[in-house]
Design brief:
The structure is a homodimer. By secondary structure, the first copy, chain A, is an alpha/beta fold. Among the domains of chain A are: 8-73 and 378-439, Urease, subunit C, domain 1; 75-154 and 230-333, Alpha-Beta Barrel (TIM Barrel). Chain A has 16 helices and 16 strands. Chain A has helices at 26-29, 51-54, 95-108, 113-129, 143-155, 179-193, 213-225, 239-248, 255-261, 279-288, 296-301, 309-314, 335-348, 355-369, 396-408, 411-424, and strands spanning 8-17, 30-41, 44-50, 63-73, 75-81, 132-138, 160-163, 165-166, 199-205, 230-235, 269-273, 291-294, 320-323, 387-391, 430-435, 438-439. In chain A, strands 5, 6, 7, 8, 9, 10, 11, 12 and 13 form a nine-stranded parallel β-sheet that branches. In chain A, helix 6 (179-193) links the parallel strand 8 (165-166) and strand 9. Chain A binds chain B through residues 85-89, 91-92, 94, 122, 125-126, 129, 300-303, 305, 331-333, 340, 343-344, 347-350, 352, 354-355, 395-397, 400-401, 416, 419-420, 422-424, 426-427, and chain B through 85-86, 88-89, 91-92, 94, 122, 125-126, 129, 300-303, 305, 331-333, 340, 343-344, 347-350, 352, 354-355, 395-397, 400-401, 416, 419-420, 422-424, 426-427.
């Protein structure tokens, strides 16, 4: 019997958050169903609860069953460079040398829209293969590369945020815009893409080193002109970067004050890294309700240092933190693997960080940081049905490690398995990714693979 | 036509070492053939060189071709606990608490030989799936667990070194031996397994905390009685461990001096970790020509600290260093992924560490550390034909990243791809593992899977 309704159900194990496990006991923040039912209608969550109870209300429901799989909300990547996909794992340098030697030549190729289109497709396939359904994405200085990204995201019906890199000094000439062209191009791209379907725009000065004060003034003006847009940039990643930044802005006492001076530090601002922040900078980010994107695989790969997550969470209010893969300085597209590396970075500093805390940052926490928690982040009724099906037994070692948890099916056992996945898993642990209740579309589905 | 000869050839890309890239230019230490031929006879390397030239000498040779795959010598894991396989990624503790909470209960199950046999099979399958062909393996205190391991290794014709854990204090009662029973049991196991086929024995006091002075005296006696055997133990991994150790040995000035006092610091001694060694301890390890097993995934996972590889290599003579996965505190069975994490640990300290240096430690360097470089470690004629076939295109991202290198097929491009594999790869990058020139045997092949 073919159902005429748009209703569809998903049955299996479910885990999501309704509170912040950095503030409260994990059991109070977490919803777990060993046998749950998610009901989706027209791409949104119509109902959610225990299968045994909820099923009675939907006697005719068509159901996709994942009896031994764990469904979680779609993962959110708060910092990633799509044009750097092909240069991941570039050997041997720290930040500034790495930019000059590898990044700038790679980004220069994105003036060709055909190249940008191919790479945007590849990049989004990788995100979806790893369970990431929303990301805050840096493109390049070329507007063509922004169009290519948004077009590819829109064809897949994804909720994505991106922006054109603004960069008018300290980079190769072919990669530079000017203060005025960067303003004009950003302006046009905002008109074209911001709030179009599920897309949103982020004003994107690369970092203070590559923007003149004139350009930063205009970045601030864009934020004022379009209150709903975002700001993304880099902050305090590497010691040499900080030193050069303060040489370029000799009247500023610290790195954050530069962005503050131009009105870039606000509640929709996401700063990547923040490794070497002073206590004063931490406090001001807290007061401004800005977000830090914690990118542990990148911070370890570039030898940048260890982010003080515990400091960010000890403030009042705590600083909103999300996780970033930071491809191509990061070494994995997987936000789950990024949680694993975040654990290592915090544990090395003698601090606790649980798998559930990591998953919170990657789902509801990231959604809150982006002020998108009315739309995504958990299985709340009315939200968009972006979610991920995890196979806890994707490899022989994972099977061995999670076997008992799949017999018990308690929150504690499944949380332990989730932690194991963050350490031992790879893209194979993502069995399926759903966008608005439908299987995610890949380049091959769209005829562009 | 069926060949009556035992000769078999392998054609493809080959990379191995004939020198130490910590001492000399990489190009001087490395052999690379873009189109090479390895000729194997009766499990040993009969010939090795450029295909175009060497093939003329073997007109009838049957050849297995891997045209786009990279063949490297079998990988060597210098520190791994086979009974800890099922407890990898155990959450939230540093060394001493982690031992009590997770490790000891897991190891207690190995008094049952049937369990030990199943886990030995699983463990060896994992090693082979990740390209590891030789390992220095800790078992448990139960002789049954040692027998199970050696039997499983012997059925696969592997070159493996292992030993019974000696532990007569500071652990749960059911896991303790006594000084005299540990001596007797080790003695019998050496008689049974050392130098049997490709197997060798390592005297294995867990660490100074869990052995009385009486037991360490007898460990030293075993080394004197059997000059060809090894010593493996842990050294200076964690600050609390060091503090407790020195409380237990109040007359010793540092950790290493305890092992020295009992004659355990010699050229066939492998010490895991060595993270917090003093300069004096580094110098004495250098003078004794002992080996350190560098276990970066474990050191990050347990928050133990960062091994000073550069210090170990700056001494004269430099300290022999190999790589250890340290499963179950380590988070990957892959020595290639371990190289990637070693890069992060060294880079975080501002030091250089190349993919080729990592591969050296994992092949010829490890073989030299074990004094097995007359038998394994590279493709030198006469050595045993243990090798690994790497698929540089095992995932979409790896394919993108290594595409150009596979067109160029130069040493520089392939070395860069190898580095990318250490960051981005997993067990899928190991297309095949050969033992003595034959495809490795897995539990299913042996009827025990």
């Amino acid at each position: 019997m073919i159902s005429c309704s748009d209703l569809h159900g998903f049955r299996g194990l479910f885990l999501d958050f309704i509170g912040d496990p950095f503030d409260d006991f994990e059991a109070n923040c977490t919803r777990f169903f060993a046998d749950g039912l998610l009901v989706v209608e027209s791409g949104k969550i119509k109902d959610f609860g225990e299968y045994r109870i909820l099923k009675k209300q939907y006697p005719e429901l068509e159901i996709t069953a994942y009896p031994n799989q764990l469904m979680i909300p779609g993962l959110i990547d708060l910092h990633v460079h799509y044009p750097q996909t092909e240069m991941v794992a570039a050997y041997g340098e720290q930040l500034l040398e790495w930019l000059n030697k590898y990044t700038f030549p790679t980004e220069a190729r994105f003036k060709h829209q055909a190249h940008a289109q191919i790479m945007a497709d590849f990049f989004l396939d990788e995100l979806l293969r790893h369970g990431t359904t929303t990301a805050l994405v840096l493109t390049t200085v070329f507007p063509e590369s922004v169009d290519a990204f948004f077009e590819a995201a829109d064809r897949r019906h994804l909720r994505m945020i991106a922006g054109k890199v603004m960069m008018d000094r300290n980079a190769p000439k072919e990669l530079l815009d000017t203060a005025s062209t960067s303003y004009e191009q950003s302006h046009q791209l905002i008109q074209k893409w911001h709030d179009y379907h599920r897309l949103a725009y982020a004003v994107t000065p690369r970092f203070a080193i590559t923007s003149t004060p004139e350009q930063l003034v205009l970045a601030g003006r864009l934020l004022q002109e379009y209150p709903g847009i975002y700001l993304q940039t880099h902050l305090s990643e590497n010691l040499k970067e900080i030193q050069l930044t303060l040489e370029l802005f000799p009247n500023n006492s610290d790195y954050l004050s530069i962005y503050e001076q131009f009105g870039l530090v606000q509640s929709r601002s996401v700063f990547a890294h923040g490794i070497h922040l002073s206590d004063g900078e931490f406090n001001r980010l807290s007061a401004a309700q800005s977000t830090i994107a914690f990118c542990p695989t990148s911070n370890l790969f570039l030898g940048s240092g260890l982010f003080k997550l515990h400091t960010s969470q000890s403030l009042n209010p705590s600083i909103a933190v999300g996780l970033g893969t930071d491809i191509g300085a990061g070494t994995s597209f997987s936000i789950l693997q990024t949680i694993g590396e975040a654990y290592k970075v915090t544990h090395l500093q003698g601090q606790a960080f649980s798998g559930l805390q990591g998953l919170f940052l990657a789902t509801l926490g990231g959604a809150r940081a982006l002020q998108l928690d009315d739309k995504i982040g958990n299985f709340q009724i009315g939200k968009e049905a972006d979610f991920v099906v995890l196979d806890l037994q994707a490899t022989p070692l994972l099977s061995l490690r999670t076997r008992q948890a799949l017999e018990e099916k308690t929150l504690e056992a499944i949380a332990d398995s989730l932690f194991a996945l963050t350490m031992l898993g790879d893209d194979r642990m993502v069995q399926a990714t759903y966008i608005m209740g439908k299987p995610a579309l890949f380049a091959t589905d769209l005829g562009s693979g």
